[in-house]
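This week, think about what follows.
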Amino acid sequence: MNRNASLRAAGLLGALVLVPVAVQAQATVGAPAPAFSAPDQTGALRSLDAYKGKWVVLEWVNHECPFVMKHYGSGNMQKTQAAAEAKGAVWLSVNSSAPGKQGAMDGKQATSLTAQKHATPTAVLLDPDGKIGRAYGAKTTPHMFVIDPKGTVVYAGAIDDKPSTDQADVKTAKNFVLAALDEAMAGKAVTMASTQPYGCSVKY
């Protein structure tokens, strides 16, 4: 293994093992998605109940995390958002970083970052007390969930099968989120309904 690969592996291992022990609840595939309500970047209150009858994608985000930077820097997350929304899905980016910790932001910062990255989430939810994150068992940024129109979790896990910070890996990665949406929307069972999330630990 060369030096760069070793550094990448070490960084990945460090990010994956630093999962807060306080995160115990977990959204389970095949079970109802935990209800929630939280302010978005404009201060408006958003609730999962408001999206009954629609497909919903949840994305845990931390703009300072190198894994998140990979997906936004390459344009992969933006393309995934656009593709999901083109299918009629609602996309909610959730920030569960506690005040003073990496990735924490207020509504103004969320609005600015969304514009800078040319991202198109339906909304950015601010979860500084970590209630939503803990209810879902969100462990990493990114950590992805797909919820069907009945309110059932049909996918939980990583965005794709390339757990690295290398933007070049996006080109050959299998996008689990879009695959789950395609299969579920077609009335099929999701082949990879649960995968191991990767990224930086959520900063509760």
Notes: The two ends are 34 Å apart (CA to CA).
